[in-house]
Design a protein that fits this description.
Elements: E1 2-7, H1 11-26, E2 30-31, E3 40-45, H2 50-70, E4 75-80, H3 81-86, H4 89-93, E5 99-101, H5 109-122, H6 129-133, E6 144-146, E7 168-172, E8 174-175, H7 186-190, E9 194-195, H8 198-210, E10 215-219, H9 236-244, E11 251-255, H10 264-272, E12 279-281, H11 289-295, H12 301-314, E13 319-326, H13 333-346, E14 350-355, H14 363-367, H15 374-399, E15 403-411, E16 418-422, E17 428-432, E18 441-449, E19 454-458
Parallel strand pairs: 1-2, 1-3, 3-4, 4-5, 5-6, 7-10, 10-11, 12-13, 13-14, 17-19
Antiparallel strand pairs: 8-9, 15-16, 15-18, 16-17, 18-19
Helix pairs in contact: 9-10, 13-15
């Protein structure tokens, strides 16, 4: 039996898909080249934005069309945040779904798929969901739904995760969130905050290094809120120290910290620990204090700018990135201008920016009408993205001529003779080279700059037939 997993959304979802792949392979499945070759298709969903949900239904429609053409339909499992949020309601919207698995029930996926397969075999030849999917009519087979929320300690069997990236390994340190920002659905889909033990995290790190990974990415909804349940004196900065001490760890990244919990100890850890990358993703969401208050972010514009100043004073080479929302309920032109002026003042190296969309169960959905017109949201997001693009171009132009250390993490999708990597500050660097260089550190001189990446050449001449040391 073969499986195929599609993943939408954040790094946490990517890591969950790695876990699901490991579970399925431990149960005897092999990975398929694509959905047409799969006996099981898993769609791991995101519900942070409405557009992310829409992708699910588009893919289910495409799978239904493929089933009609090929005459065979795979078992379809929907997992992730939309599964947790919608539960059995998903079955009412699509007759292609066999299994719905919530965020806290990932470990049950192979067993639930086996139950769905057995049910499908029992009903073979009968009028049912499988026949309906192929266009033969029928009342449909009830899908299997497990979105229960035990919210136990988020452990996972050591060595079972199938890391998809050849260079980096994701390691979850926190599940869930207790902050309940007004716009955010995560506490309702991921549950309350649960910390993994320091010992278990370090075991995951050591195993990833033994498997050849050189970069560790620590994940959590509010990663810098970490405190080890097995060692209460160990905060997030202490965990960074412990991970840095693991032999073989060359780089450490983390996502995403909350500005409210960005302590002096964290700043010092980023500054002083050589493996910790000089890049901090620091979501601000808005540049207006009044908007931040309505969003329940619990800091002001002034406090955020003070934090940025403190970070840059301590770590002059640091590169900052952020998340930004436009069109949140009640956003005025003045509040949006505050977002533009903060963006200009901070000069982020990169930004994820979104138009607000109402999310189920959130405070904003319950108490704040979505009253900013869609055309206004579109105008504002375009204006913000145009500003950010200019800033990125200027920052990259200033980097031309610099020599930087790059970890090569992928080959180019457009050019066979080119590879790509990232600096410690998370700048994407493209350079000429063979795929054999993936996983290697190289000194590169930046020669050209674009708004989204830069292009450089190796400082030292290297043999393309052999990977560099």
């Amino acid at each position: 039996m073969k499986y195929f997993i599609e993943t939408y959304g954040c790094q946490m979802n990517v890591h969950d898909s790695e876990r699901m792949a490991g579970l399925l392979e431990a149960s005897g499945y092999e990975v398929a080249r694509d959905e047409s070759d799969a006996d099981v298709v898993v769609i791991n969903t995101c519900s942070v934005r409405e557009k992310a949900e829409d992708k699910l239904y588009a893919r289910l429609g495409a799978l239904k069309g493929l089933a009609r053409v090929t005459g065979r339909a795979p078992i379809v499992a929907v997992t992730g945040c939309v599964a947790q949020q919608e539960g059995s309601h998903l079955l009412q919207r699509s007759d292609m779904i066999d299994v719905v698995v919530g965020t806290q029930r990932v470990k049950m996926l192979p067993m639930l798929i086996d139950h769905a397969r057995a049910r499908s075999i029992e009903q073979a030849g009968a009028s049912g969901r499988r026949a309906s999917a192929l266009g033969s009519g029928g009342a449909g087979i009830a899908g299997i739904v497990d979105v229960s929320t035990p919210y136990d300690e988020p452990s996972f069997p050591l060595g079972l995760t199938k890391h998809a990236d050849p260079v980096k390994a994701y390691v979850t340190i926190i599940e869930g969130c207790n902050d309940f920002c007004a716009f955010c659905v995560v506490p309702y889909t991921r549950g309350h905050e649960r910390m993994r033990s320091k010992a278990e995290i370090l075991n995951d790190v050591r195993h990833a290094i033994e498997q050849g990974r050189q970069e560790i990415q620590l994940l959590g909804q509010i990663v810098n809120h970490y405190r080890a349940p097995d060692e209460p004196s160990c905060d997030f900065a202490g965990l960074l120290e412990a991970v840095s001490a693991v032999p073989g760890v060359r780089r450490i990244r983390f996502a995403s910290p909350h500005p409210r919990h960005a302590s002096d100890r964290l700043i010092a850890a980023v500054r002083d620990l050589p493996p910790v990358c000089k890049h901090i993703h620091l979501p601000v969401q808005s540049g207006s204090s009044s908007m931040l208050q309505r969003m329940r972010r619990r800091y002001t514009r002034e406090q955020y700018l003070e934090l940025v100043g403190k970070i840059r004073e301590a770590i002059p080479t640091v590169q900052l990135s952020t998340d930004m929302i436009v069109g949140f309920p009640g956003e005025t032109e003045g509040e949006f201008e505050d977002t533009l002026s903060l963006t200009e003042a901070v000069r982020f190296h990169s930004m994820f920016s979104f138009k607000y969309s109402e999310r189920p169960n959130t405070l904003a959905a319950k108490k704040m009408p979505d009253d900013v017109a869609e055309d206004v949201k579109t105008r504002r997001i375009r204006g913000l993205q145009l500003l950010q693009r200019r800033i990125q171009q200027e920052l990259h132009d200033a980097a031309v001529g610099q020599r930087v250390e790059v970890l090569i993490d992928s080959r180019s999708r457009r050019r066979d003779w080119e590879v790509s990597g990232r600096t410690s500050g998370n700048t994407i660097v493209n350079l000429p080279g063979p795929a054999a260089w993936v996983g290697r550190f190289m000194d590169v001189e930046i020669r050209r700059a674009g708004p989204n990446s830069v292009w450089g050449e190796p400082v030292h001449q290297l043999d393309w037939t052999a990977a560099p040391a």
